[in-house]
Structures are given as C-alpha cells and as structure tokens.
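Subject: PLD phosphodiesterase domain-containing protein structure
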Amino acid sequence: MLKYDEDCPPIESLSQETVTFVLAKKTPVVENPQEAAESLFSKPLNHLRPRINHEILEHEITPEELDAAAQYGRFMERPSDLFLKLFHNVLCTLRRDPLAGCVSPSLIGTTGVIPLSIISTIPDILQHYYHCIINAKKEILLATNYWEKGESVNIIGKALRDLSKRAGNDNRYIIVKLIIDHPTKENLIHNHNILPPSKWPDYDIPSPEEMPNVSLEVNNYHRIILGTFHTKFMIVDRRMVLLNSNNIQDRPNLEMMSHFEGDIVNSFYDTFLISWWIPFKPHLVCLNDDASAQNHFHFGMNNTKLVSIQRPLQQAIARARLLLKCHLEKQAPDVYLDKHVLVEEKKTKMNGLSTIAIKALGQHRRVHSPSVLVKATNDLTGAIVGVDMNPRPETPMTHHLNQAAKSAYATRPDENLSSTELETLAYDFTPFIFHQAHAPFPIALVNRSPYGKPIHVDTANPQDAAWMGA
C-alpha cells in the first residue's frame, strides 16, 4: 500500500474546492483557470511515478481502501467492488499530481444518466450536435481534436449561424468557446493560443459578422511535439454533455456518441476550464449554474432536450440505412444529405449506385415531412432502440456485426448474402438508442493530459491507471 508520508500526501488532504468554484468567485487575484488551479493544488511530484505504478500494478487492494474510495466519490450509492478497485487506482495518481486527470479531484468520481446514445456515421452524430447547438440558451463549450474543413465543419458553422438568428429574435447573446488542436508555430512558445477572427476563414469558421448574437472564442491547444488534445465533447448551458468518438471531420467511420445529464456535467465543465487554461474573453455565464445531481430526469421523447430532434431522426435513420446499404453493396453514397443542416444540397453522382440505392436516395431527397420516408424507415419507433422501452433480441444486423467482430479481417459482408438478406441488414440498423429510465449511476471521469515528449513514462495518470487496473 502507498503509505502516507510527507513526500506523498493522502488523497483526503487534497482540496475539495474546484477550479470552477474558485473561478466563479471572481476574486481579483484569480483571472483564469490556470491561476485557480495553482491556488488550489500543488505541482506534480514526478519522482513518485514508480511508486504510483507499483501501487496500481502490484498492490492487493484492501476492503478498507475500497471503502475509502467509495467515500471519496460523489456517489449516491456504493459502486461495485470492480468499479471501486479501478477508482482506487485512479485516486492514487492524484497523490502525485492532483490535476493528472484534467479535473478537480473532488469531481473525478460522480454520477449521471444517459438518455440517448447514437451508434452511426458522423453526419448523424453531428446532426444531434446541430439541434443541441441551435437550442442553446446561454452558453456552449465545444472541445475537439481535429477540426477539418468539410461537411462536418459546415454543419457546425450552419448551427452557429442559425443559433445567432434565434438568439437575435429573442434579444439574447450566446457565449461559445471552442478548443481545437492545430499545431502552429505559436505553439512552440505557448501551448494555448487564441485564434483571431482574421484566421477563422482558414478553418471555415463563421465570421463575427455572420453570427452577431454569438460571441465565439477559439483556443488552439497543442503541446509540442506529440501532445495532442484528444478529447471530443460539447457542453450546452451546463445542462447536458455530448461525448463522442469522432472529431469534427469527414470520415466514413462507424462512431459513437452518448448524451449525459446530471452531476457528471459539472465534471466535464471543470475539465473544459482546465483545458482552456488561459483567460476567457468574454467570461463564461454558467459558472454558477451547477447541473443538479437530483433532477427528475426524463427519458425517451419525454426529454425536452431531445424532443427537438424527433423529426430529424427520420431523416438521419434513412441516411444511415442508405449508407449501410451502399456499404454492403460496395458502393459510395453521399451521406451528407440533410437540407435542414447544409447550406445547399449537393448533386450526387448516380453512376456508382445500385438500382435499390438510387431509389432509396431519390426517396430520401424527398424526406421533408414525417409521412415520407425511405422504405426501411416507415416505422420510426421500429428504427429506434428503446422508444418502447423494451430491449430487443439479437437481430440479423447484431448477428452480422458480432460475426465480423470475431476476426479483425472479417470487415466485409458475406458475398453469399442475397439482396433480401442485405436489405434485412440495412432495415435492422438502429443508430439511435433511447435508454430505459434509470437512476443516476456512478461515473469516473478518467482523463490524461496531452504529453508532448516522444516517450512513454507518463503512465501515472487516471486514464492509464483505470486501464491497467482492469
């Protein structure tokens, strides 16, 4: 066990205050997250790395240590012993560096709910981004690694323009903060650099004139040489978080996004502040608006944060199924088809599509009312897992994906599948999963800081500790 001594303080001795709380007090001596963090927490004790790694890999965790881990987290009920073992290892890393997890220690273990998950292509995930952005009331914090010109960036740009129009109609002003990672010569001197509006056209970011009721600030964060800022999430009004696997870029990948609510939102909020590090200009407006851990959460279409996407769900399901159908038939469709999101609809080459896909594409382009859908999406509730709050048995698509997962090389469908079986696979594809109603459950936010040096010694951090402890 990693015993307490003067060189290795106990976890209980770490400040229970958070960077968010200190910054919200607006004291004259604290003007940015860096100053708030440095006023609360000590500098990293790098010489303790070997001891921390030994604790994580070799030490047999005692029942007393599990109890201590359970008491440290902001949990509503005691998590499982497996969770607590991993959480104990995570807490060990904070004794070396309280900010090793890029979040104030008291917020690293908390609770939350997940009303919605999306397992689909990037356009479907970004369509949910779009609708969450345009429905924001006060503040949006968006963090991503790659921000590459393309249709994904266009969707976010369109969302910001539309948000500005809505805010202008209501005489509101929205604060938006964006963190991206695009290494420049400025990063040789400072890890964090504010991207001036004059540079925004290089990234296809809307100009201030295009969104007069949105105050956007862009922070370009990179640690030279290899310290990539790899996180991907968005916080809206400090009430919900979208955490996803994809960046803001165009890739033909199957990705995943989860929509979080509850106390975990406060943890993500603190992580964003610490990642930003430098002064906010203008300041944030939700610093004092804690997300409640005790809310009566709504699920399915009863969730007011999700009701705005009901109609676009039909279009997204049609698009996702079309993409899958064309993939199974080894074709290349245009997956960015939503007129409501893109500035203008692009012409799609028909030569490379099968007769079935062309027919589906033609139907999809007429999808502007709930009554007109691609054949496979006539029943909206049948295309969404969880709307009826009943679990679904293994279906042909599940079986197909499970079979493919058994081999790293099994990435293509069986060439012996008939056209009917291919259509069944596409019909079964359910990109939107509305989870059954559930109470807030334990969550540990296990991050790691970008590490610029081309070596692998920085393993004493919450993310690595959780993986190695498993």
